[in-house]
Amino acid sequence: MSWWRRLVKRGEMERHLDAELQFHFDGLVANNLRAGMSEPEARRSARLEFGEVEQVKEECRDARGTRWIEDLWQDLRYGARLLGRAPGFTLGAVAVLALGVGVNLAEFQVFDATIFHNLDIRDEDSVLHLTRNSRSGQSLAFPHGAVEFYQTQSRSFAWLISEDSTFDVVVEGDAAVRSTLVSPNYFASLGIVPAWGRLVDAQDAQPGAEPVAALGYDYWRDHWGADPDVIGRIVRINNQPVQIVGVLPYNFPRSLLGRRSEVWFPISIRPLLMAGTPTLQQDFTRPSEALFGKLKPAVSQAAGAEELTSLTRELARQQPRYFRDDEQLEGQPVQQSIVQVVRSRPAVAVFFVMILLVLLSACANLGNMLLARGLVRRREIDIRMAIGASRARVLRQLMTENFLLALLGAAAGLGFGAAAVRLLLNAIGAPYTVRLTIGWPILIAALMLTMVSAIAFGLPSALQTVRINQPNVHLRQSLVGVQAAVSCLLLIASGILARGAISSASVPLALDYRDMLVIYPQLYGRNLTVPVVQDKLDALSARFSALPSVTGVTAAVVPPLGGRLIIDSLPGLPPVYRNAVASSYFKVMGLPVVRGRAFLPGEEGVVIVSESAARAVWPDQDPLGQQWQLARAQRTVVGIVKNSGANLLTDADSIEAYVPIEGPDLDRSALILHTPSDPAPLVRMIPGSAAAVNETVSVTLMRTSRENFLEAQRRLVMLISSIGTVATTLAAAGMFALVAFTVAQRKRELGIRMALGAGPRHILHVLLRQNAKPAVAGAVAGLVLAVILSRLVRSQIVLYKEAMDVVGVAAGLAGFALVLALATLSPALRALRIDPSRTLRDE
Amino acid sequence: MTQPKSDLPQGTLDLLILKVVTLGPIHGYAIAQRIQQISRDVLQVQQGSLYPALHRLENRGLLAAEWKDSETGRQAKFYRLTAKGQTELKSETESWKQLAKAVRLILESSEANG
Fold first, then answer.
1. Interface pTM (ipTM) of the complex?
2. What is the pTM (predicted TM-score) of this model?
3. Do A724 and A816 form a contact (C-beta atoms < 8 A)?
């Protein structure tokens, strides 16, 4: 019989065992009767010969090999009964676990759904990554024919774009350059403005269009000498002549799928670069493209996916070889993988550590409660051990109870987590399209984590409980200490991080970025002479000045908050962010000149520095009139301006320098328009004005990227401070439970003390003394850890650069002390209301 | 409290049971009687301790059991040796003989010396 059947047929097994032993016993009795004994004597003798019946039965049950499961079942029932009998303790423990697990789960999900959106694109929250899933579970990419089919047939999407980042190219003999092929509407749909030239656009999809490519910013800077004149050049890519038409902005280094790309092509170039591939329109053979789309307003995600799925049915009819009619299309918000995000933003790693610490705090809390409960059950356990239960057996029983608690806690945690997610999403104001992707792996991981932690923290308490006559002061004190340390660390860390995030988000921008439009003409790469360029810029400026409500026009090679950067690395100095600007730049941008003067029109051989640069380069001297070798020339410092703040967001150490736009740089200038009213309506008028002087330009609002950044920061602050709140709540709940428990347990002793004349101060002293020391020690440890941690992450986290945030630390510590005091005092004060005579009588 | 376990060396009871069961299907009571008879009451086995051993052997697949009418007409659980039990009995007997021989050699040689 299998052990399983032995277990299931337990009743039958027991009956058989009884019958078998009874048969033997009766045989002995009958034998004795035959030998002439009286009936009672025969039975007595049989009992002696047979031995202890119950003992034999026990041993037979052991022999079945299913004993442990029966015990487990018994323990579970016993544990459930006990937990039910102590509802206060059970609720408390489950609540602590639920808080720890549930909040963790919620934070993780929200983090997953929102912060991982780290792309600098327009409307990123409403961009969906569409995937094609067949019933057999494989997820496939799309052939180009299908992409075009969806693009022409779909009514639910404002736009659909595709990318193919499956192959590398050879550029001028430089092998394995990573590339991405994109649909012609890709960059325009995502709202990506080129740093230089133009990006792949609709004209590249025309029949007979010249093969073109755009370069990634880093690749352009590192391999093409950061020279805008590469635009227009013909280079050999996979041995085919391809014209370079533009450079991507520095803040868009990766495709939507997360692949870093050096060269970007229109998808139509594929047959040229890869010999033997069919022309695109008929290409259903190569499923290599990823599909993304933005829903039209008021179209739900489900409706969008449904429409595409039914279009896929149609495709399956037309192209039965490449599509199956059971395929489903699904949409998920575009997001980066955890690994990518952690690599690009170390703050995320800190976030995960904090989440784990919250769990640790919850577990220390639980350990403490279990320990206190073990004290109360002292008598019960002593009795069980006195009547022969082995220590291991009692330990197993205690651990079974812990297991039960963990199970309840995990279940409650999942429920609570689901509710907390909604709360958090509301709190950070996430857009409606953010979909929570909570898969089985996360659920199972949460469950396992709860189990493991409950067991890990239950075991020491259980061990302590079965050990007789040992004071368990040390364990309890160390648990209190751990909890205090973790909570303190979390509070301080979240205080520092949140303040850091706030302060970096509020890095004052000395520029008037809200009211600015940036216009990128394309005068470089066309071999125009300086006077011609000057004429064209003047003509454009005149046109734009004439537009309604435009109050100022200026020019700069690196418009603030845009896609271009020029960084000089000079020995012994922080990175110098260099800009070349027109003489009217400071006035139009509202950037105050602190000392000296702005540029004069047509001036050369001069430089204006920011206050931070003045301090960094000439710490002990007056910068005005100093000579500085910069941008291929020896220059005299003529003025000092305020730090613009534009680059501090991403590089807190940066310093700034401005030189006049000189002849060779003139064709790279972008024009900046100032308007006192909302600049958005102007955007539509710009291309027309430019066309009037036969130029094509791209145009963007200066505030866009700044606002994206602030939004991301705000969410991060909300999440981080919510962790601090949870840690505080846990610490408070833990201390409250501990003191309340102590009061309940020592009621009699306190009653006696009061009857003997102990005053309230004495009673409070007795109650608080034992936890005060470890709590203080833990808090100090937490403080030290926080300092170390903040120093460790300081250099990594862009958010925060100050060595030690005294205000943040003080606020965290004060909050911790206050909460702890409240949590301990309220149950302690209750102890003062003990009526000695009644308490003593009750006992 | 009396020590209910047999005074037999560890594992000996199993071997005796297997040996007795070779004679054919037999119930627990008869096995106990047979062991006492054969050993001429030298081996005093607390009869109850037979059953844990029987059940263990059954779970290991060395014995098989079924409920049948006994000679008194009452239902009893009859045990018989399985093929696996046969092999086990053979190897156990062999090693037991080896052990006994070795023990006798040692005892006799020390007698000779003493």
1. 0.85
2. 0.57
3. no
